[in-house]
Amino acid sequence: MAGSGDWMLAVVAFAAAAAVLLSEAEGLGVNWGTMASHPLPPRAVVRMLQDNGINKVKLFDADAGTMEALAGSGVEVMVAIPNNLLDLLTDYDAARDWVHENVSRYSFDGGVNIKYVAVGNEPFLSSLNGTFLNVTFPALQNIQRALYDAGHGDTIKATVPLNADVYNSPENMQVPSAGRFRPDIADLMTEIVQFLNQSGAPFTVNIYPFLSLYGNDNFPLDYAFFDGTTSPVVDTNGIQYTNVFDANFDTLVSALVAAGVGGLPIVVGEVGWPTDGDKNARVDLAQRFYAGLLRKLASNAGTPLRPNQYVEVYLFSLVDEDAKSVAPGNFERHWGILRYDGQPKYAMDLTGQGRNTALVAARGVAYLPRVWCVLNPRATPDAMSRIGDNVNYACTYADCTSLGYGSTCNGMDAAGNASYAFNAYFQVQNQVEESCGFQGLAVQTQQDPSTNACNFTIQIEPSAAAGRRPAVVAVTVATAVLVSVLAVMVTAP
C-alpha cells in the first residue's frame, strides 16, 4: 500500500488534471437559440450549461426570461440585437435606451455576466441584398458609445457576428494569404474593423466547414475535418492547410492584415455540424467533426498564421430548433449537439481529450403523454384520395425535414411518411384530439411507430416549455418543395 505522502501527491496530481480539463471545457461557448415550438425552460438550460461546465453562451436576442435565468449563474453572455432593430439603433437615443433596458438592467453584482453585445447577425450576407449595409456600422458605433456612457464600455464590447462570406481569396489564387474583404463591402469592412480595434472589441466570424460540403459534391470530404487529408492546400508562402477551418480562419487573418489591423482578436461565433436534413448531416460525421475540433482547441495549436494561440469558439448550437427557417436547407433545424429536449445525440468530450463520454442531459424535462398520431389503417378509399393535401398541411405547420432526401426518415414507405407528418403536427399542437383527425386519415396510438433510424417525437409539456404557445413553423421555399415532394410520394400508386 502506498505511503501517505504518495497518496497526497496522487490527490494533488488528480486535482491538477481535473482543473486543466475543466478549464478547457470552460473556454468553450455555445449558441443558445430558442426558435422551437416547445423550447426548453430557460432555467433548465442554464442548469444544463453548468452541469456540463460550459461557461460561455451566445444569444440571438435579449429575451427577459433568458436573461433572468442567467442572472447569478456566472455564465459569460453575448447578448444580441436582431437585424430588424439595426435601423432603429442608428438613432443614439434609441441605442442608449436599448443598453439601459438590456444591459444595465442585468449588469450588476450577482446579475448577468455580459461580455459582448452582438449588433445584428450576419447582416452582410450576400443573400440579404444589402438590406443592412447602411445601418449596421452606425448601430455598432451607437451601441458602443452607449455602453461607455452607461459605465460598461471598459468591460462590455459591441461586435458584429459576420458570416465568412464577407471575405474571400481571389479566384486566380484561392489561398489564405491572399484573403481580402469582399470587394463590394471592402471600404465598409475596413471602417468596421478599425473601429473594433479602437474599442477593444473582437472580430466575430461564423465558420461552417459543413457548408463547404453542402451542395458541392466535388469538395473533398476529409478536408472538412481535422484528422488529415491526402490533398492539402499549399499556399504561396509554403504553408500547407489540411482542413478548411484553418484555411478559412487564416483567410480572415490575411484580410485583417490588409485592412491594417492584423492583430485584431478573432472570436468564432458559430461553428458546428448538423445531424439531419442532408446526406452529409449525420451523427457520425458530427461526432467526427467535433472530436477533431475539440482536440484542436484543447491543444491551443491555433492556425498557421496565428500559431500556438487559444481560439475562442462558440459551438453551434446547443439544441435543435424545429421552428427555424429552412431557407438555407433542411439541416437548419438539426444543428444541436443536443436534441430538442436536451438529450445528448452522441458521445462528446468537451475537454478535447477524446474520452468516451456524453454531455449531461437537461434535468426535469416533462413530456406529453406517450401517444402518437399515425395513418389510420382503416381509412376509406375516399379519405385516402385526400392524403396528399393532408400531408402537405401537416408539414406546413410542423417539422418534416427528417423525411427529406438523405435524412434519417427518408427510407420509409408512403404510409410511414404520412404517419410521421401527422405525428409531427399532433405533437406541435400539444396532442389536442382534433389535431389527429386529418379527414379520417389519422388515428392515435400508444404503440411507438419509431424505427431504428427514424424517431417519432413526443414533445415537451407546454408548461415545461416556459408556458409558450406552439410556434407556427415558418413556411419557406425549401419547406414548400419538401411537402410537395412528400405529397407526391404518399399519393403515388
From TrEMBL:
Domain of life: Eukaryota
GO biological process, one term: carbohydrate metabolic process
Entry's transmembrane regions: 471-492
Domain X8: 371-456
Membrane topology: Lipid-anchor; GPI-anchor
Record's signal peptide: 1-25
Principal location listed in the UniProt entry: membrane
Annotated PROSITE patterns: GLYCOSYL_HYDROL_F17
Ranges in a coiled coil: none
Database matches in PANTHER family: GLUCAN ENDO-1,3-BETA-GLUCOSIDASE BG1-RELATED-RELATED
UniProt name for this protein: glucan endo-1,3-beta-D-glucosidase
The organism's taxonomic lineage, starting at the top: Eukaryota, Viridiplantae, Streptophyta, Embryophyta, Tracheophyta
